[in-house]
Amino acid sequence: MVTIFEVYLKLLRYDIYKAAREVVHIQLLSPKAFHRWQHEQKWRIARYHYENNLFYRRKVGDTFPDKWEDLPLMQKSDYQDDLSNLLSKGYSTKNTYISSTSGSSGHPFFFAKNKEAHAMDWALIKNRYSWHGLKLNPRQARFYGIPLEKISYLKEIIKDKMMNRVRFPVFDLSNHKLKKYLACFKKNKFVIVYGYTNSIVIFARYLLNLKIKLKDVCPSLQYCITTSEVLTVEDRQILEDAFGVKVINEYGASETGIIAFEDSEGDWKISEEILDYEIIDDENKPIPNGQEGNIVITDLDNKAMPFIRYKIGDIGIISTKSSSDGKSRVLEKLLGRENDTIILPSGKRSPGLTFYYISRSILESSGVLKEFIIRQTSVDKFEYDVVSDRDLNLQEIKEIRGQMHKYLEPGLKLTINRVKTIKRPRSGKIKHFYSEIP
User: Do both 233 and 369 map to the same domain?
Assistant: First the structure.
């Protein structure tokens, strides 16, 4: 059955039907043919950008290499430029899908995807949902952020309507707000709970304290899908106990789509139909399966912008076992994506990703922020460490304070430190927000 959202995508010229057929075609290949196809596809997309993208050609150099490992590793900071300087020949902001990263790793940037690549992302989501008997857009309770600026807010509300979801903004996760969210579950036939792991766990703990099982309140509920932050074994148990449904773990990034998705057998299958996936050590050498290393991704479909050997900033382990189809690899573990929770003087709680929305206006208007983290040093004090081309001016600082007032609460103290570099933790991954409250 075709959903309203699929029709909506088609009207926007994202041909999800064609993309869905392509996904099936790839999946029907024998293991040998699949690996040959993937090998050819990653070289094809790399060569395409070398010949059609001046930004990437400059990164590669005068000669296109014969060995894959000789292609440059792309960092998030490489993409922190005017988007028009990053696009391949024939693409512009008018004929591509444009969005921005959350900045959860401290490196925010805007990116583009050609329409065919974006359609493949949605076709893959549809395929992954089908593993669990779900349609592309089941009735969804979405624990997520939302921009509060009028135009951006309206766009998200329209998108939510088209995608059959009710958004529960996570900027305020106080008991008072969670009580309202619970009441909404009593009135809606939600099929899935989806959103930031940290935020959903806070809601789950609230339910456990009340001795309420969400499935009893909302009998239509079937699954909980966690994303964006690491799902620990303890978190999974809390969610299953509180909700009374199975938990599905998703690993994705806005610029690459779903990277890995848990199947019905509990394997975290890598999205190798749309991505090439490498694990390398700190010296940029390949690491055998079963060992921890840096995740490097190549988008096999995006012709608008080169995500070739893209070091996404996460640490992971690929399992020594393959998936049941003998083709896709299995992500055994993901490290370094946990965000702390903001605790405010009023008792409100909010996820660390809230600071992406707070800094969004500065990111969009000036492009001055290159890298940043926020540290909460006491209940009402925040330290904002910024790597930038220049000092933030008084108007920009005032705007950040205003956004903190809007998204969090008034009366918070802010210190902005311009720094040359940001010290990384042992894992190598920068979290967006750090709580330093004892």
Answer: no
Which H or E element spans position 72?
A: none
Q: Mark whether 288 and 348 lie in a shared domain.
A: no
Q: What is the pLDDT of residues 24-49, one digit of tens each?
A: 999 999 999 999 999 999 999 999 99
pTM of the entire predicted model: 0.85
Q: What is the DSSP string of 340-392?
A: PEEE-TTS-EEETTHHHHHHHHHHHHH--EEEEEEEEEETTEEEEEEEESSPP
Phi, psi of 233 (to 5 degrees): -60, -40
The pLDDT of residue 373 is 84
pLDDT tens per residue across span 194-219: 999 989 999 999 999 999 999 999 99
Q: SS3 for 234?
A: helix
Q: Are residues 366 and 347 in the same domain?
A: yes
Task: Give the per-residue pLDDT at 337.
Answer: 55
For the chain, give the number of residues: 438
Q: Are residues 229 and 327 in the same domain?
A: yes
Q: How far apart are CA 321 and CA 141, in angstroms?
A: 34
The token pair at 4 is 């309203």
| pLDDT mean over 252-271 | 94
What does the pLDDT look like over 327-377, one tens digit per residue?
Answer: 889 999 887 655 568 889 998 888 887 887 887 767 666 667 777 888 999
Contact 279, 294 (CB under 8 A): yes
Going from the C-alpha of 218 to that of each of 10, 166, 215, 245, 323, the distances in angstroms are: 32, 14, 5, 11, 34
Measured distance CA(121)–CA(128) in Å, rounded: 11
Indicate which CATH number applies to the domain containing 417.
Answer: 3.30.300.30
Q: CA dihedral in degrees (414, 418, 421, 425; nearest 10)? A: -10
Residue 102 Ramachandran class (φ > 0 left, ψ -120 to 50 alpha, else beta) = alpha
For residue 113, the enclosing domain spans 4-138+222-335
pLDDT at residue 315, as a whole number: 87
CA dihedral 249, 250, 251, 257 (to 10 degrees): 170
